[in-house]
Amino acid sequence: MLSMSQPHPHQFELDINGPFDFQRAFKDVTRAPFQLTERVNVNRMTGVFPIQGGIVGASISASGTIAKPHVSVQWELLENESDPASVQSYFHDLFQTRVDLRDFYAHVADEPVFQKLIHQFHGFTFLRKHSFFEAMTTAIIDQQLNVAFATTLRERFIRSFGRIITWQGEEHWLFPQPEDLIDLTPADLRPLQFSQRKAEYILDFARGLREGTIQPSKLSQLDDDSLLDALTKIRGVGRWTAEYVGMMAFGRLDYLPAADIGLQRAIQQLFQLPERPTEAQVRARGEAWKPYRGLATFYLWHASES
Fold first, then answer.
1. Could you give the number of structural domains in the chain?
2. Among 107, 113, 189, 224, which residue's Cβ finds the most Cβ atoms within 10 Å?
3. Residues pairing with 61 in the sheet
């Protein structure tokens, strides 16, 4: 267990366009697995974050209103090196500060289903995963599993291979990093009830990040089609996984994971269809949501859960 705190934390403000429902966003990001990697107390979220080779402890505090949010970040470097510019860029990306939900709302305003969802989830947007590795590992774990068991596997993975870091008097789990898995074989994941294939996929991906054959900085520069193509070349990554990772690691707003069973069920329920739509039918329906199909997906997912 690592316990560190420096006497002079840094602080900056996040320039977030309203509407932004920080309470709902904080609650959503900590749903699974069980506030291990973040902790939320009303309008404050704390956690430890892997940023450009360093580990940063951060407290994100929100005030104001949904229409006029005010979000500040107080942070300290806990391990290795990470410059202030990289830290600020990281949190702007994490909180999707360049997204203006008003554009999305205007685009789908004529759709009765989305009129209701905008009212229900006004100001709600998805926060990215802490890292490319976390997003990919989460997606691989989730493949063809129900939500409850996938959540259990994620918790086991974190508790088995992550680290506890105590910052500002609170314990936070750091999601396992590729370096933490360097000595593992698939046999080490099998007792956690990982399938042989999923264990291989995760460890292969971690190896690719460590050895530099997979470079997220280069992937982030690709357009949407090229990024999907590059991601699906990674072992164990099909289109659904690539679309999920594109959203949650790279913040792409127009990916539509049309093969997702939960999304298909949400569309059937909310659009009152007689049967669950196929992947092709979801893609056809989603044409009207471009270039915000990822945001539309996010709202549909949450509507089906509420």
1. 2
2. 189
3. 44, 72
Give helix 196-211 / helix 132-142 axis angle, nearest 10°.
170
Cβ density class 275-291: b for 16+ within 10 Å, e for less: eebebebbeebbeebee
11, part of any domain: yes
Which strand (E) or helix (H) includes residue 150? helix 147-161
For residue 161, being part of any structural domain is answered with: no
Task: Choose one of 55, 73, 99: the last residue of a domain.
Answer: 99
Choosing from 77, 99, 121, the residue where a domain stops is 99
Tell me which residue has tokens 């309203």.
18
- Write down the pTM of the prediction: 0.92
Rg of the chain over all Cα atoms, to the nearest angstrom: 19
Whether 158 is in a domain gets the answer no
Core vs surface per residue 242-253: b (16+ CB within 10 A) or e = bbbbbbbbbbbb
> Range of 77's domain?
2-99
Distances in whole angstroms, Cα of residue 169 to Cα of each of 4, 19, 94, 165: 10, 32, 24, 10
Listing DSSP states for 225-247 in one string gives HHHHHHHTTSTT--HHHHHHHHH
CA angle 226, 196, 29 (to 5 degrees): 55
- pLDDT single digits (tens) 186-202: 999 999 999 999 999 99
pLDDT digits (tens, 9 = 90+) for 161-170: 999 999 888 8
Helix or strand or coil: residue 52? Answer: coil
Tell me the C-alpha distance between 99 and 290, whole Å.
15
Q: Is residue 58 part of a domain?
A: yes
Give 73's strand partners. 12, 60
